[in-house]
Amino acid sequence: MLIDGEKEFQNEMKVIGRTHHRNLVRLLGYCHDGPKKLLVYEYMVNGSLADNLFDPQNPPRWDERIRIALEIARGILYLHEECETQIIHCDIKPQNILIDEYMSAKISDFGLAKLLKADQTNTNTGIRGTRGYVAPEWH
């Protein structure tokens, strides 16, 4: 019999595994062996947005930055309003935005995500995310 935390993990993996959008990194599979958990995502050849933004040799041009911001916004819109189970990511930051072979941005790392029930219209969460990237309204 699964304890609540393990059951919740498996339910979250099923939801995230069914969540597909061009601006989300796809979960390919996972391993759940007692306390050992492993998530397998598609490979993003161009690393993270942080790697790209802070590359002194080849930083993205402003038009590329705007396109990336729009792709991130499309991914967040999908998570919040369009997918079957709405998801609040809780940790959007440059390290969690990965760049594919076509230089398209994809949201990754749903480790702090909060799933909303089908009839749920609002939610309360404690402060979540990485210090320095927490939304200003939390302060």
What does this 3D model show about the protein?
- The chain is an alpha+beta fold and 139 residues long.
- 29% of the residues lie in helices and 17% in strands.
- The protein has helices at 4-17, 49-53, 62-82, and strands at residues 27-33, 36-41, 87-88, 97-99, 105-107, 114-115.
- The chain has a two-stranded antiparallel sheet.
- Strand 4 (97-99) and strand 5 (105-107) form a beta hairpin.
- The model has no long low-confidence stretch (mean pLDDT 80).
- It catalyses: L-threonyl-[protein] + ATP = O-phospho-L-threonyl-[protein] + ADP + H(+); L-seryl-[protein] + ATP = O-phospho-L-seryl-[protein] + ADP + H(+).
- This is non-specific serine/threonine protein kinase.
- Keywords: ATP-binding, Kinase, Nucleotide-binding, Serine/threonine-protein kinase, Signal, Transferase.
Structural class: alpha+beta
Q: For the report, how would you describe the main beta sheet? A: 2 strands, antiparallel
Helical content stands at 25-40%
- The count of β-strands is 6
Strand content: 15-25%
Mean pLDDT: 80
**N-to-C SSE series?**
HEEHHEEEE
Q: Which shape, going by the Cα principal axes? A: globular
Strand order of the largest sheet: 1-2
**What Rg do the Cα atoms give?**
16 Å
Distance between the termini: 41 Å
Number of helices: 3
Q: What are the low-pLDDT stretches, counting only 5+ consecutive residues below 50?
A: none
Domain Protein kinase: 1-139
Organism: Daucus carota subsp. sativus
GO molecular function, one term: ATP binding
Protein name: non-specific serine/threonine protein kinase
